[in-house]
Specification:
Length: 136
């Protein structure tokens, strides 16, 4: 009969080293993927304000973008970012969304949508610190 042998110490150490190298590569990529997925919540939360600004432009015919502020012309009022809520504001036709003040990498990151003109159709331009972070 043949004697059954297990793995040597060197083989086990090589496998552990390979797993360690793969983890150092995969973990940052997974964190970025996870942050982008979480940040999509904030981008989606801008939709009601975007619709309200477009509706105000089409139905109220504002003369200047300064008229397009939160709390006026049917646009929802501004909300300040806190530990439990995201911030949302509309100022001069620009929607400014801010991630809540929590202990994540996303705290304080902004997403902006600027109405290019005040005549239909509205051409939106995105911006904010989310672009430099690769989140939007």
């Amino acid at each position: 009969m043949r004697k059954i042998r297990g793995f040597t110490l060197i083989e086990i150490l090589i496998v552990v080293a390979i797993i360690g190298i793969l983890m150092t590569i995969a973990l940052p990529a997974y964190q970025n993927y996870s942050n982008r997925a979480a940040f999509s919540e904030l981008i989606l939360a801008a939709t009601p304000r975007k619709t309200a600004v477009e509706l105000a432009i089409q139905t109220r015919n504002p003369s200047v973008p300064d008229d397009l502020d939160g709390g006026s012309l049917g646009i929802p009022a501004d909300v300040t970012a806190a530990t439990a809520t995201h911030g949302a504001a509309v100022l001069d036709g620009t929607i400014i969304m801010t991630w809540q003040d929590d202990d994540t990498d996303l705290a304080g990151v902004t997403y902006t949508l600027s109405a290019g003109n005040i005549k239909p159709p509205v051409q939106w331009t995105k911006g904010g610190t989310c672009q430099t972070n690769g989140l939007c």
